[in-house]
Amino acid sequence: MSPDPDRPRSSVRGWLEERFNLTEMFSFLTSFGLFPTELDARRPLKEAIAEALSRPFPSYARWPRVLGILSMLLFLFLGVTGVMLALYYQPTAGDAYASVTTLVRDVSFGSFVHHVHGWAARLLILILLIRVWRFYFQGMYKGPREALWIVSTLLFLVAAAADFTGRLLPWDQHGYWQTIRGMEVLVALPVGGWVLTFFVGGASPDTLVLLRFYFLHVVVLPLLLLCLFYLNFSTVRRVGLSFSPGESRSGTGVFKVHLYNLVILALLVFGCLVTLATLLPSPYLAAADPFNTPAGVRPAWYLLASHAFLQSIPTLVPSWLRGLLLEAILACCVLLPFLDRSPGRAASQRRFALILGVAVLALWLVFTWMGYRMEVGR
Amino acid sequence: MSSPLNAEPEIGMGRRSALGWLVKGFLSLWAIGAGAVGIAFLKAPEKEKRPAEGVIRCGSFSALGIGEARFIRHGAEPLYVIRVSETQVLALPAICTHLRCVLKWNQTRQTFDCPCHNGAFDKNGNVLSGPPTRPLAPYRAEIQADEVVIRT
């Protein structure tokens, strides 16, 4: 097979192109939110890109489609700062607190990296939650976006798990007791609780639990998140960006605009993280003491509602049934596209779903408030 | 596809499917075995909930004033030793029966207070207020030559 005469044989790209499928590689690498459409992997890279860019598209680094790329950016910041923190952190019950203290106090920019990591995590799960609600109210779980919905809900759940496991790692009083409080909610659940008890053991964390949380936090959950982000953007590439009914499609632009938007967004996110990390560093109490429960430590905010919900059902109902109910509700949320059989995306076509959504959101807020009050310290 | 192959499918197909099932069976047995090994390997080791069988020495009896409680850091479950009279001590787990927070002894009110949900127990371990429903299960405590000893 003779090489294409149009291809510049002398260039590095041409040399590589004969040995690798660069288009396929580029397509994969840019499928984490950078490139809007699929590329034709049989064509040379330059042609494929030119062809893809000739199709105008609305930049999804702008409201209201910004949330996906925003969470990906935050995940990137989390990855970078997480790797930096891992260079100093020691995951044993005896050394963890001392290593984090050293990092925060003595290492140049150590406290900055530590707090940026914490704030990026908080913003990430918040944005993923907002994104799920936006998808719900705009009906974006309707075909062909069922996969997008499922992946988005799983993204939130896995990000929350990563946040939960991360809170234990500094091994300070706040994180330690927050983890115990959260575990009390989780181990009471029927199936999920059994799995957690099986792999993590009892409710009181020791070095073994810390090591397992650490492994989950730095290897398993980030890989899972990466896979989910990939699936998320792949399905968006395949089914196209969404337009709400009535929204004009005139907001189309060229790739350069999208790229500029992306850079601006990254700088804005970085600015927000720096500001938050500087002005509101996370509470950092003394080293964890298993024999002293500090007052006023609540479970992580996303667990407050579930705790209040479990407590609000009369004790007549056995606790495993309450837990099962909670898990059933969660499963229904993930599998929503197959449960909501309303005819279309428009608000008039799914009034029941919208009312249910408002009711669930209101109930969730009320239960969160109840959980917040219930966990009051003296 | 030539016709002679299709002409006598019975024996050949039967053998082929049997072989296929054998391969599938072998692979699934292998997968089950490997999965079981992995899960058994990952199982968290058992932890002692109550203090281990035996004797816990809780320090001097006379050093403990009447109405005072001593916090004993023992195993995964700390406990309190309370002197209730001239000759009597009580031993109670220091773990709230509601959600397993560590209780604090309130000297003035003579109660165990939970810092998590404002539960309270009296010095005998009975629930006074708050969300706990079960009382604290006491240990058997005795005094041996001015030393408080708990036998479990």
Shape of chain A: globular
**Main sheet of chain B: which strands, in order across?**
5-6-7-8
The major beta sheet of chain A can be summarized as: none
User: Stretches of chain A where pLDDT falls below 50 for ≥5 residues?
Assistant: none
Number of helices of chain B: 2
Indicate the radius of gyration of chain B in whole angstroms. Answer: 31 Å
Radius of gyration of CA atoms of chain A, rounded to a whole number: 24 Å
CATH class of the largest domain in chain B: Mainly Beta
Category from helices, strands and their pairing of chain B: alpha+beta
Just name the CATH architecture of the largest domain in chain B.
Answer: 3-layer Sandwich
Order of helices and strands of chain B: HHEEEEEEEEEE
What's the end-to-end separation of chain A, in Å? 80 Å
Number of helices of chain A: 15
Total strand count of chain B, please? 10
What's the rounded overall pLDDT mean of chain A? 86
Give the end-to-end Cα distance of chain B, rounded to a whole number of Å: 79 Å
Helix content of chain B: 25-40%
The interface involving the most residues is between: A-B, 31 and 25 residues
Strand content of chain A: under 5%
Name of the CATH architecture of the largest domain in chain A: Up-down Bundle
At the third CATH level, what is the topology name of the largest domain in chain B?
A: Rieske Iron-sulfur Protein
